[in-house]
Amino acid sequence: MLSQQETKREQWGSRIGFILACLGSAVGLGNVWRFSTTAGENGGGAFILVYLLIILFIGIPVVMAEFTIGRKSQSDAVGSFQKLAPGKPWFIAGFLGVAASFIILSFYGVVAGWVMKYFFGYLTGSLVNVPENDFTGYFVSFIGKTAEPIIWQFIFMALTVGIVVVGVKKGIEAANKVLMPLLGVLLIILAIYSLTLGGAKEGLTFLFSPDWSKLADPHLYLAALGQAFFSLSLGMGALITYGSYLSKENKLPTAALSVGALDTLVALTAGILIFPAVFAFGLDPAGGAGLVFMTLPNVFDQMPLGAVAGAAFFFLLFAAALTSAVSLLEVAVAYFMRKFSWGRKQAVLIIGSIIFVLGIPSSLSQGAVPITIMGKDFLTFMDELSGNVFLPLGGLIIALFIGWGWKKTDALRDSDLGDTLIGNIWIWCVRILAPVGILLIFLNKIGIVG
Ligand code: TRP
């Protein structure tokens, strides 16, 4: 039943190209913007502890599961399940994933647009000469405008569309190889600098010394779970899709581990950059979605060559966001191309346009028009709906699929782990630990257990 299209699927150029593309997908606004917002709102240290445990015992095992499914099936998020388990309902996870890709990219494009605005702000000097260094005022008045943020969002989406049209290998793989290491180096330099600004002690205490009483809040666990899935690009078939462009000779476990470890390292480094500055400049760590945009300009303002550093930082964050956005779009594109036999160009243009329009309410909800759902502005609502509901639910089904839908011997073989200690720990994680963990966090949150 292999169609022409499937036998001719695109492939990564190299193993390292695959790892970098997955890393490019993982490292994005999630590590800097969303991580600092979520960690800040959930009290810091205790959140981070739970986050790290979830990455290790739920996140990385589910990354392995997605890679295994994708490489085995050589198909997209929905097709993978239909091919490997015809007639069974597992493919629902794929549909959730495609839906999540629309939701996430819609608001992701808005925030990435803010990042672009800040990059140009440093290039042109408008962020260097902000009156009285009121960066909070600058940010709030910018996102409260009607047209300007939407124009930036449009530019960002157009760039994403442009890359996905060209195809996976030449566009994304090439850019990632240069830009991701640069981002890492700049983050480290800035983090060290931020530690000299006077808020180091408070910032580090906030991040790394847990306030145990916070562990009583059920929302903390859901927020950490959602953040782990969001940051690892997990639970919506992005890594299934990327794994499907991999040939059988490539080994999966080291790839999963490197992606998990490096993504987490980037998030923690961003935290070490942001939180000392939050305290040094007297901001509120629970300040919400604007934290990064209100904090970092203060750091650049104090720094020698701050305008250059600011431009470089927001450029690299933009690049990181772009490689993540590309993976979000690719999930939907790969599915629609197969399902409706669309060409790549047609699929990318149609889906990209729909997602752009879907993002407009998120943009407007930041001050121009009060669009709220369940007491949250539309952007935050979409963010939490996708991160805290769709992704963990998708991850739950994916874990169950490998853990219970596959024979253990097949799963061990197809994941390259083999019948080893690590292999058996992995099976145990996807069979029991991850599903039970995710379910308990859901039930705890709605007050059924705990
Ligand atoms: N992981 C990306 C980030 O941290 C966002 C992202 C890209 C994503 N692809 C995804 C999130 C797939 C969930 C699923 O910014």
Automatic annotation (TrEMBL):
Compartments where found: Membrane
Keywords: Membrane, Transmembrane, Transmembrane helix, Transport
Record flagged with keyword Cell membrane: no
Lineage top rank: taxon: Bacteria
GO cellular component terms listed in the entry, alphabetical order: membrane
Primary localization class, coarse: membrane
Positions of transmembrane segments: 12-33, 45-69, 90-116, 150-168, 180-200, 220-243, 255-283, 303-336, 348-373, 385-404, 425-443
Membrane topology: Multi-pass membrane protein
InterPro entries, per database record: Na/ntran_symport, SNS_sf, YocR/YhdH-like
Tagged with keyword Ligase: no
Pfam family, one: SNF
NCBIfam families: Na_transp
Protein name stated in the entry: Sodium-dependent transporter
Organism: Bacillus mesophilus
